[in-house]
Amino acid sequence: MKPRKNDIPIKRKISGRQLKELQKHTWRMCEAFGLDRKIEKYKGVRPISFYRWDLDCILDVLDMTLNDEKEYPDKNNEGYIILHELYLDLKKAYKETYENGPLRSSIPEIVPPLEIFKEEDKN
What are the residue boundaries of the structural domains of the chain, listed by start? Predict the structure, then answer.
């Protein structure tokens, strides 16, 4: 998918153990075109940009991985804790940018007029 002018990227610097843990699970991102390779090649020196569709995939993969008993049987494992912190950080950034940000407020909410349905029921 190609970004358009209104698509907002989230930039994060991921390095050290967080990057190693994330790179361990890129094989689960094989359906996201190029995201797996982008994360595998990332060295952690500069911030990496993720668009909404990238974060959708990463958050789903991290959620699936963190809930996998075979991958992390011990929830006190250092790898689990570090990956969970990354998951929470990315999820917070996602919510701030896409759910509470300028894109969210510009979309009108469509609510069916309940009064019309109530009047029809009376007749």
Answer: 10-122
